[in-house]
Amino acid sequence: MLDFLQADRALLADTDAQILDLETQIAALEHSVSLLRAARQPVQERLDSYKYPVLTLPNEIIAEIFLHFLPTYPEPPPLVGIYSPTCLAQVCHKWREIAHRTPPLWRAIDLTRPFEKPGVEEAMSLCLLWTERSGACPLSLRLSDSLEPLSTYTDVIYRCARCEHLALELDTTQDLDVIQDSFPSLKTLDMYISGLSSFPANPVVTLQNLPLLRTVVLDDWQDLHVGLPWSQLTSLTLLSLRSEICVPILQQASHLLHCELEFGNHSMTAHDLDLELPRLETLTFRPRGWTDQNFVRCLMAPRLLRLQLPEHFLLLGNSESLVIEPLVSFVSKSGCQLQELNITNPCVPDSENVYRGAFPLIPAILVAR
Predict the structure, then answer these.
(1) DSSP string, 194-246
(2) Range of the structural domain that residue 198 is part of
(3) Do 156 and 207 belong together in one domain?
(4) Could you list the pLDDT tens digit for every one of the 369 residues in the chain?
(5) How many other CB atoms are found less than 10 A from the CB of residue 267?
(6) Ranges assigned E (strand) in 56-198
(7) Is 319 exposed, middle or buried (0-12, 13-18, 19+ CB in 10 A)?
(8) Quick one: which of 72, 230, 250, 305 has the most CB atoms within 10 Å?
(9) Cα–Cα distance, 139 to 163 (Å, whole number)
(10) Considering the domain boundaries, does residue 363 fall inside one?
(11) Exposed (0-12), middle (13-18) or buried (19+): which is 213, by Cβ within 10 Å?
């Protein structure tokens, strides 16, 4: 019995010694913590008084930086993600206020991208929110009926009377009439056909009630006849169009200043040989493959200043023999004071000397090799 008592007393004494030792260590640690806190205090005070340089800038400068963060208008940013203005609004409270109060940040809207994130409903809600935040700014809008029918965008379109740039990616022309009375401020129209399988034979698309329209891009409208106010246009790009569609359009576009044409392998027929563009200043040819030169033979552009075309446009068939007589005839017949001839994708050695010999009065002849 005495042995058990002696053992317990020894254990108790040992435990008390350990407690005393730990308490001594705790006191030392508390003293160290107190010293560290005292040393930390002036550092924290200095940090609290410091302002990040970007936050000292005037709000107007920050807003201008925000605008340079986005693609150049009318190119739209994504609705969400790192390159979206919503990303800027998530950095801090001040940036959110500046972003939400900067209408130009929200003036270009893209609804052509897949809607997995965000979904269709969320994308529509974001789009409507952007139109509100854009204030009175003119808008740039991209729509695609390959993701949703154009009728899905009714609420968006209803709010887009301020839209001045509209890009459409189409699988069908079924709902195109929504443009007719919905975009009175439209200046630029870009329409791309992503597939022709769903179109009826030889459909006609007519959009005439667009009083401010000045620039049109039509891409891959091979079998479609388009009615637009051609006579009021100043810039026209026709991509992948056949001559029977392209030429009648150009015959009506008498006020064009700039024109870009891309066409495939075809020959101009006799009914095409009457085409004058009296105000045209810039003309760019982008033929795909070999195209005969009757198009140049039938064209007159008395005010043309700049002409760009690939060198294979001037080749005889598939050979490497340059045939520039039609080009010389076009410049002479037009009576234009051409200031720049730009030959792209040259494939004939020393062809630059041929052009300079044929056109000694043109100040700038550029052959990009």
Answers:
(1) S-STTSPSS-EEE----TT--EEEEES-TT-EEE--GGG-SEEEEES--HHHH
(2) 138-228
(3) yes
(4) 667 778 778 888 888 888 888 888 998 898 899 999 999 888 888 877 766 677 778 999 999 999 999 999 999 998 888 889 999 999 888 999 999 999 999 999 998 876 556 677 788 888 899 999 999 999 999 988 776 777 777 778 877 889 999 998 887 776 677 777 778 899 999 988 775 544 455 557 788 888 999 999 998 776 677 789 999 999 999 987 777 778 888 999 999 999 998 865 554 554 446 789 999 999 998 866 555 566 777 889 999 999 998 888 887 666 667 888 888 989 999 999 999 999 988 888 888 888 999 999 999 999 876
(5) 11
(6) 108-111, 139-144, 163-170, 188-193
(7) exposed
(8) 250
(9) 4
(10) yes
(11) buried
Q: Are 302 and 279 in contact (CB under 8 A)?
A: no
Block residue for tokens 């005393």: 20
The answer to whether 258 touches 234, Cβ cutoff 8 Å, is yes
| pTM as predicted | 0.78
Helix axis angle for 59-69 and 93-100, nearest 10°, is 80
What residues are paired with 44 via a beta bridge?
none
Question: CA-to-CA distance for 148 and 141, rounded, in angstroms?
Answer: 15
Assess whether 197 and 327 both reside in one domain.
Answer: no
Measured distance CA(76)–CA(73) in Å, rounded: 7
Q: Which residues lie across from 284 on neighbouring strands?
A: 260, 308
Q: With 0-12 CB in 10 A as exposed, 13-18 as middle and 19+ as buried, what is 297? A: middle
Q: Please give the structure tokens belonging to residue 250.
A: 């150009």
Q: Is the domain of 234 the same as that of 344? A: yes
Contact partners, residue 48, CB within 8 Å, separation at least 6 = none
Structural domains in the chain (count): 2
* Final residue before a domain boundary, out of 228, 259, 282: 228
Distance CA 57, CA 308 (A): 46
Last residue of a domain, one of 204, 228, 252: 228
Residue 199: inside a domain: yes
Cα separation of the two ends of the chain: 110
- Does residue 65 fall inside a structural domain? no
Name the amino acid, one letter, at 96.
R
Examine the domain organization and report whether 235 and 367 are in the same domain. Answer: yes
> Is residue 254 included in any domain, yes or no?
yes
Q: Is there a single domain that holds both residue 352 and residue 321?
A: yes
